[in-house]
Amino acid sequence: MLRILHQVGPDAPVSAYLEHQGWPEAVRAAREAHVRLALADGEDPDTPRAPSTCSVS
């Protein structure tokens, strides 16, 4: 993702990211990382989690 960001620029339209030749690989790598992290936490990677909040007093 960072490589694509540096190549297209932070202010580029979304289409520039989606059309980038490296986008499919970036999505695949992000999915693999998500699955590994979820499984390491004992969670099902395909079950959505409710957002957690952090309250500060």
Write the layout of secondary structure elements.
Blueprint (H helix, E strand, L loop, with lengths): L1 H7 L5 H5 L4 H18 L17
Provide keyphrases for this structure.
mainly alpha; 53% helix; extended; 3 helices
In short:
The protein has 57 residues and is an all-alpha fold. It has helices at 2-8, 14-18, 23-40.
Provide the structure class.
mainly alpha
Instruction: Count every beta strand, where a strand is a DSSP E run of 2 or more residues.
Output: 0
Discrete helix count: 3
Largest sheet: none
* Rg, alpha carbons: 15 Å
Q: Can you give the helix content as a percent range? A: 40-55%
Helix and strand succession? Answer: HHH
How many angstroms separate the termini?
35 Å
Write up what this structure looks like.
The protein is an all-alpha fold and 57 residues long. The protein has 3 helices and no strands. The chain is extended and about 35 Å long.
